[in-house]
Design brief:
The complex is a heterodimer of chains A (236) and B (105).
Chain A: H1 3-7, H2 14-22, H3 34-63, H4 71-74, E1 77-79, E2 82-84, H5 87-111, H6 115-145, H7 159-190, H8 210-235
Antiparallel strand pairs in A: 1-2
Helix pairs in contact in A: 3-7, 3-8, 5-6, 5-8, 6-7, 7-8
Chain B: H1 11-33, H2 38-60, H3 68-102
Helix pairs in contact in B: 1-2
The chains are: A mainly alpha (236), B mainly alpha (105).
């Protein structure tokens, strides 16, 4: 599969390797399964989508003549008798980081052919992801209840609602899709479809443990996007 | 190195990165609720954000172990977005200026 095996010669590393790979006739991204390089290309395009949303949010926030709502106050939740700022968002952030950690370990145990551990770690990732979406639904419910709409809100600049629903909605959709794919891969791991390289029911691609890493890349990307949303939208 | 066996790294590496991600998240939350303001607050938030993003990309997504051809193919186009951001900052303040000049009553 990889070019290392075909030529039998070790590939040069670093900048020499960069030149060598790009002047190759057949395959540029050597040593990785094509599905993994395609996942990287997809994530790059997704990066552009989220970057456009975040830059758009930055732009409307700069150009808004009314004061921007204070996120710490808008997203505060009453707990222990006081309004804790960003309580829900902080919990969601920790849930997503935890899920990234379990996913990284799932990829590691997948390559070690430890089916049981891989299965349960992916399931843990999916459960954490699903609870993230659940908390996000609660957050949306609370904000809509407070009167936040895409065209206006009681706290300040009307663009706040539009940016909030677009960005968190798009991110939540990504998490939901990720949970679905995680569950599919988890059951493929459990029933041995990757171990025995059985073809998938839809694409007929042979099962490989790199699939765990590929879906893991997507999951880490979702966490990565949240890092930026957390900083720019909630903390800034 | 990415070989036929795929990415295999010691458990310790992942656990340490995981811990650091938690620490940086707590750090950015503390910055937000602390009395720090404006430039100091924003630079600290950005600092923690970039640290977290860097760790996730480098270790969890295995970028430090990939070949340079895939690293540059992913990071260089993404880096161009920083340029877009700065263009939009300058244009945004220009628009704000015109709005304040012509639409304020």
């Amino acid at each position: 599969m990889s070019d290392t095996a075909q030529s039998g010669q070790p590939l040069p590393a670093g900048v020499d390797g960069l030149v060598h790979d790009w002047q190759a006739d057949q395959q540029t991204f050597k040593g990785v399964p094509w599905a993994k390089s395609m996942m990287w290309i997809f994530l790059l395009s997704d990066t552009f989508i989220f970057a456009c949303f975040l830059v758009g949010y930055m732009k409307v926030r700069i150009t808004a003549t009314e004061p921007w709502p204070d996120a710490a106050a808008v997203f505060a939740l009453p707990a222990f008798g006081i309004d804790v700022p960003l309580l829900l968002i902080a919990i969601m952030t920790f849930i997503l980081i935890s899920s990234s950690g379990t996913m990284a370990l799932a990829v590691k145990y997948g390559y070690e052919r430890n089916r049981n551990k891989t299965f349960w770690l992916i399931i843990a990732t999916a459960v954490l992801g699903a609870s993230f979406v659940g908390l996000q639904i609660f957050e949306w419910y609370k904000l809509i209840d407070d009167g936040v709409r895409p065209w206006g809100n009681p706290f300040g600049a009307p663009q706040f609602g539009a940016a909030f629903f677009l960005i968190t909605g798009f991110h939540g959709t990504h998490v939901t899709i990720g949970v679905i794919f995680l569950l599919i891969i988890a059951f493929k791991v459990r029933n041995g479809a990757l171990e025995e390289e059985r073809p998938g029911f839809l694409t007929k691609r042979r099962g490989r443990y790199e699939m765990v890493e590929t879906v893991g890349l997507y999951w880490h990307f979702v966490d990565l996007v949240w890092v930026f949303i957390f900083a720019f939208f909630y903390l800034w | 190195m990415a070989a036929e066996q795929g990415q295999q790294h010691p458990l310790r590496t992942y656990l340490w990165i995981w811990l650091w991600l938690f620490i940086f998240s707590v750090g950015s939350y503390i910055v937000d609720i602390s009395p720090l303001a404006d430039m100091v607050k924003w630079s600290l938030i950005t600092f923690f954000m970039l640290l977290k993003a860097g760790l996730i990309i480098a270790v969890f997504m295995h970028m430090v172990w990939e070949r340079m051809s895939i690293v540059t193919a992913v990071l260089v186009p993404a880096g161009v977005l920083v340029f877009l951001m700065f263009m939009m900052i300058f244009e945004g303040y220009y628009i704000l200026g015109t709005r304040l000049t012509f639409f304020s009553t």
